[in-house]
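User: Show me a protein chain along with its predicted structure.
Assistant: Here is one chain, sequence first, then structure tokens.
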Amino acid sequence: MRNHDVRTRRSADAFPRAEHLAYKIAQVAADPVAVPADTEAMVLNRIIDNAAVSAAAVLRRPVAVARAQALAHPRRQGAAVFGVDGSYSAEWAAWANGVAVRELDFHDTFLAADYSHPADNIPALLAVAQQLDVGGADLIRGIATAYEIHIALVRGICLHEHKIDHVAHLGPAAAAGIGTMLRLDPDIIYDAIGQALHLTTATRQSRKGLISSWKAFAPAHAGKVAVEAVDRAMRGEGSPAPIWEGEDGVIAWLLAGPDHTYQVPLPEPGEPKRAILDSYTKEHSAEYQSQALIDLARRMRDKIGDLDQIASVVLHTSHHTHVVIGTGSNDPQKFDPYASRETLDHSVMYIFAVALQDGSWHHEHSYAPQRARRPDTVDLWHKISTVEDPEWTRRYHSTDPAEKAFGARAVVTLQSGETVTDELAVADAHPLGARPFGRDQYIAKFDTLAADVVDPGERQRFLAAVDALPTAEAGSLGALNIHVDPRVLEQAPTIASGIFR
């Protein structure tokens, strides 16, 4: 692994294409290095995880909207839309399936200098693979690259500090992954990366204040843009260059400015792609930095006893947790019992209160309007606050896996003045947690979330198709789509006609 210095360059500077970050990424994508067995196994796990959360979200309105848009774009040789029969244009299948994967905020995560959900790459790659009759081994290679690039960018470049949404790392990663999967020339991949970054850079207002369903659509849009960018690049179209380092590029005007140098770690030629092994999935449907806090609340409730005796709860945590999902955000919406599900998902005060009271977490029940508006919940919720603790911030950014932490120390003060204190560094499902996720846990999550929408035989068929993916022949990847009984889909909200009908 090598750290590459990335900084703004003047247009008059001698800065050859081979030195551009986009070209270095393209070279990584074009490297024909074999996929390690543990990387391959984790790719299969994340395909299962995406199917699980898509099944749980299949009847939700944003997913129904995206599905309706995709179904308006049939194609004889195309890609599958989750849950339904037929063949549809790859970019629209990527769009619909991307929304389904992201809607419940329930799949994988990687946190470093920035945030990410690298499994957001998978819908775009799978849609292209289905439309172009790619084989299973090449799909796996493409997904490994997408994770490698996505995680490298997240390690090296902080977007949220400059209020840029984290999907700006997703577009280039998906374009690179598609390039690997299709065995494209580095020059083509380079242009696709530049276009994808240029078109997926937006402010993070989608995750601030009153959060709407666009939070689920934003990564799906990035995947769709990546598909279209690769198509244009394959037809000979160029891109803004150098996209990161240019005098009017992303670093100069959207990030830290021309005086700052970022360091992005990329594999050397011939070095296996293993970054997916550094990411982790969610046991609970909530923003990742609340995962450990849900587990902590469940552990503390018996120590506390009568929750009505709580006077205050202070969560001592990292800067990121404090300002993104805590009281450091200064978002009054995070205390609003009438707030959207997406907003509640980004309120650790709400999440900790409900987890304390229920001793559990559910992707629907825990966010239900009647649950959020319970008077005793609102009362407890408003007693909870966060503060930044420099030690938790240091551990958040640590590169030592044994130190890296996404949790908090909770100090619960009772009305008597007594305090109850406990802390948890990582979620139970984290690789270093109390109950790390392995294949059995991924399958159990899938069976639980899909139980009400996918019959047992279809679930078993899908899991068998995932197991067979490494040797799956070209043209067989439609087997990775799950069929949902049309009678189940009829329960989805009725969607008004739009431009696409």
